[in-house]
Description:
It is elongated and about 40 Å long. The protein contains 3 helices and 3 strands; from the N terminus they run H-E-H-E-E-H. The chain has a single domain (about 5-100), classed as Translation Initiation Factor IF3 (2-Layer Sandwich), CATH 3.30.110. The chain has helices spanning about 5-15, 40-60, 90-100; strands at about 25-35, 65-70, 75-85. About 45% of the residues lie in helices and about 25% in strands.
Amino acid sequence: MGTLNRLILILLLLSSFADAAQARVASIETTAVLRDYSPESVAIAFREAVEVAVRGATAMGLPRILVYEARVMTDMVAVQVLATDEDLADVESAVDLHSTGGVR
Length: 104
């Protein structure tokens, strides 16, 4: 399932937990340059990517952040976070439901 489909599913699931007028959720994906494959370089790139995502979420007024996915690629690290102004437990429940095909 593509990233866009996954995001749409998560947003639909989240809408069942809270009034859509009150809850806001964003999926933010950022990347950082990977200098080499050493653990230190991967950690630095991961931290940089997360920091950019956190700044974006904060600028949108979404203070709660869940790192959803991280990938090490040839020359970069990509990080996807879910940011919300609601309880993270609701976001985690929606992600769990998605990853299990709606079965708990």
